[in-house]
Amino acid sequence: MADILDQKIIHPLKLFNIATNEKRLLYTSAPMVRYSKLAFRQTVFEYGTDLCWTPMILAKEFNRNQFARNSDFTVSTTGPQPPTIVQFGANVPQELARASSLVAPFTSGVDLNCGCPQSWACAATMGAALMEKRELVRDMVTTTREQLRQDGWDVGLDKDMESSKGRSVSVKIRVHKDLRKTMDFIETVIGGPSREHRNVDFLTIHPRTRQTPSSTPINVESLEILTSTYGDRVPILLSGDVFTLNALPFSSPLLSPNPTFTTSSEVPETGTETIPRRLNIPKLAGLMSARAILANPALYAGYDACPWEAVEAFLNNVARAPLPFKLTLHHLSEMCAPGMAASDKTALLNKQERSEMMRCENMIDLIDFLDEKREIKRRRRREGDIAG
What we know:
Belongs to the dus family. By secondary structure, the chain is α/β, with parallel strands linked by helices. About 40% of the residues lie in helices and about 10% in strands. The chain folds into two domains: about 1-300, Aldolase class I (TIM Barrel, Alpha-Beta Barrel), CATH 3.20.20.70; about 310-385, no CATH class. It contains 15 helices and eleven strands. The strands form two sheets. Strands 1-2-4-5-6-7-8-11 form an eight-stranded parallel β-barrel, surrounded by five helices. The longest helix has 25 residues, at about 365-385. The N and C termini lie far apart (about 55 Å).
C-alpha cells in the first residue's frame, strides 16, 4: 500500500496544460466495460495516451462489497501507474461521494457517467438517463467535491493542479436531440459563471443522442456549438469517432496540418464535384477513443494499425497485471484484426489465424502461437525483400 501512495499522481488539468503547451490535443482512452483494465491502460500509456479511464464502476456496489472493490478497480504497486480517472455509475449524491473517497488516494480523479445508453443503466436512472436529471447531476458533483475536500484532498480546480493531493471531478455526457436542453444541462452542472468557480474540472462530450447508434457519425455541428460556448469555461474532451489522428471529422489548430478556419459545408474542386469541408473546432481540448484504441493501442503514437510491438507490450503487462484468459484473447483478437482507420486495413493475423488463436487454451499456447505467426511473417517479409 505504501508503494502505491508514494507514486506521484498528476492532476488532469496539468495534463491539459502540458498538451496545450505542446500545441496538441490531450489524448485519452475511454471507459470501456471489461476492457479498460490495468494491463490495457498500461499498454496505451506506453504508446502516448495521456489519461486513462477505468470501466464504469457501480458506486453503490463498490461501497458495499469488498469483492466489487477488488475486482473493479486495480492499480499498479510497482508501476507504471498511468494517470487514471475512475468512472462511476451513480444516482445518489452520497453514494458517488463515498465511492470517490475510497479511490481518491490511488487515482487522479473521478468521473460521473451520464452517457451510457444501455437499457439496464437507464432503467436504474444511471448513464444517459441522467441527462434528464441535471439538478441531480449537479448535486452529485458538488457533494463529491465537498466530501473530497473534507477528506483533505485539494479540489480547488486550476489553483490546485500542482498539488500532490489535487484531484479532479468530471462528467461524461451525451447530447439531446434539442441542443438547448444540453446547454441547460451543462449550465446547471458547471455552475459558476467563470472558469475559477465551476463545479467540474472538465467535461467529456459524446455528440450522439441516447438513441443514436454508434454506426451513425457524431454530430460535429453540436460539438462545435458546445465547445465554442463552453470551451473557455471548462476543458472539453470529444468522445466518438476518434479512429485515427489524421482523419478526424473536424479541424483544429491543435491538429496538423492547421485548418483553414472555415465553417463552410462544401468547397468546390476543379470540376463539378465537391468535397466536404470540415468544421474547425478551436476550443476542443482533447480526444477520447474507445473502439479504435481497443483495436490499436498505439493510435496516439501515430500508428494507423496495431504494430506487433504493441501486442508484445500488452502481453508483458498482462503477465504483471493478469486478466482472465478469455478477456486476454478478446483483446488480442481486436488488436490482430483490421483496425478502425479507413486508410489502413492491414491485419496482423488473417481471419483464419485469428480463429485458430481463439482456440488456444492457456497463456503458454497463446504466446507460442503468436511467436510462431510473427516469425513466419518476418521470414516471408525478408524473402520478399530479397526477391525484390
